Amino acid sequence: MLSILLLLMFPLIILAMVWVFLYVVFYLQGSYTTPDGEVVSQFDMSIVWHEFLAVLPWVVGAVAVWFTIAYFFNASMIRSATGARPLTRNENMRVYNIVENLTMTCGMDMPQIYVVDDPQLNAFASGIDKKSYAVTLTTGLINLLDDNELAGVVGHELTHIRNRDTRLLITSIIFVGIISTIMSMTVRLMYSMMWSAGSSRSRDGNNAGGAIIVLLIGLVCSAIAYFFGLLTRFAISRKREYMADAGGAELCGDPLALASALRKISCDPGLGQVKRDDIAQLYIVHPQGIKAGFMSFFNSLFSTHPDTAKRIEILEQF
C-alpha cells in the first residue's frame, strides 16, 4: 500500500511543478515598484488557476503518451542498452534448470532468461507482464557462483517478478526520466537564449532577458520536482530489495547462500558497458550502493539499494 501511495506521488509532483511555475511567473508579472521604492502586488490567484486548468490537458496528454511508449517498449530498450541475449536450455542447462526448478517450486510461469557477456557480477529482473518478464544474468556471475548461490540470486529476481516490483520500478524510472528530460531541455533553452542575448544588441534584449528569467524559474521548479521524484523512487527501490532478499532466501531454502552470493557480487558489481543509472537501479547490487565514507549519510539517502553489508547481516540471521 505504501509503494502504491509513493507511486501516485509522481504525477502529483509533475502537476505541482507546473502549478508552482505558473504561480511564480504570474506573481512576478503582477508586481511593480513605485518611485518611492515600494513593491506593489497586483497578483490575482484566479489567473494562476485559470492558466493551470488550461494547460492541464496538454501536460497530462504529453506525459501519458511519453509514459505509454516507454512502458510498453521498456523490455526492448533494456535489452538494447545492456546487450542482453536469450539463453536457451541447450546453451546452459545448469542455469536453465535452476530457473525452471525455482519457478516450479513457487508455482509461477517460466520467465525469459537472458545473459550479458560481461565478466562483472550482476543480475536483474525486468518486464511488466508474463510475456515480457525476464531474468538477466552476467556471464561473470554464472561462472563465479556455485549452484546454491546462483539459486539464491535467481530466487531474489523471481521474487521481484512475483511481487510485481519490476512493473513498479519501471514506472518510477519513467516518471523520473520525464522530469529529468524537462530539466535538460530547460537548461539547453536557457543556454541558447543567454548566448543569443549576449551576442545581440537589438531591441529584443529585454524580451530575451525576461524569457531567460522565466526559464530560470522553470529550471528551479524542475530541480525541486526532480529531487522529490528521486526520493520517492529510492524509497520504493530500497523497500523492495529487502522484500526480494527475504523471498529469495525462502525460495532457494538457503539464506546463507544468498548472503554469500551478495558478498561476492559486492566485490565486482555492475555491467561494464552500461553507464545508465536508471538501468543500474534494477541490479541486485547497485555499483555505487556499496560505497561509504564521509558522505555515507547522503549516499544512503539517495541510494536505490540498501547497504549490501546490512542485507548480508539480515540474511545471516535467518
User: How much helical structure, as a percent, in the residues?
Assistant: 55-70%
Compute the number of helices: 12
How many strand units? 6
Distance between the termini: 26 Å
The low-pLDDT segments are 289-300
Mean pLDDT figure: 78
For the report, how would you describe the main beta sheet?
Answer: 4 strands, mixed
Net shape: elongated
Strand content: 5-15%
Radius of gyration, taken over Cα atoms and rounded to an integer in Å: 24 Å
- Report strand order across the widest sheet: 3-4-6-5
Structural class: alpha+beta
Element string (H = helix, E = strand) = HEEHHEHEEEHHHHHHHH
How do you describe this structure in short?
The chain has twelve helices and six strands. It has 318 residues and is an alpha+beta fold. The strands form two sheets. The chain has a four-stranded mixed β-sheet, sandwiched between helices. A two-stranded antiparallel sheet has the order 1-2.
